[in-house]
Hints:
It contains 5 helices and 8 strands, in the order βββαβαβαβαβαβ. By secondary structure, it is an alpha/beta fold. It is globular and about 55 Å long.
Amino acid sequence: MNFKVLKNIKIFLMDVDGVLTDGKMFYFTDSNGIDHEFKAFNSHDGIGLIVLSKFGIITGIITGRESESVFQRASLLKMKFVYQGFLTKLWACDEILKKTNLSYENLCYMGDDLPDIPVLKKAGFSVCPQNAVDEVKKICHYVTKRRGGEGAVR
Length: 154
């Protein structure tokens, strides 16, 4: 792998379930019968994302699910983009790149599952966690040593 492409990276976008989390979803039903979803995020990933932003790298999330906990985590980490409910991630990515006046050459994208493949194929640098599905591992520039939710983003 030619890591010289990393000098062009100006934006880092990622999936959530299986990347920032281990993919498990926890639900709690309150006394009013309303379900609440909880996700566990790794603090090491959070520090890594904050460091990226301090170096001027834009960060954001594109995920197929909608969760208040994802919005809260992204807000704490000062992520510029939070796109939830997007199974067609390429459309969301195109919109983000247009808003930032950047191109796919400037994008590092991290995903772990089949809906991530179209963006991973176009990204200047594509990454997946160690426990990504085989189809994703085959096309990524880099496979992390850690699993999703266990510090793979950092």
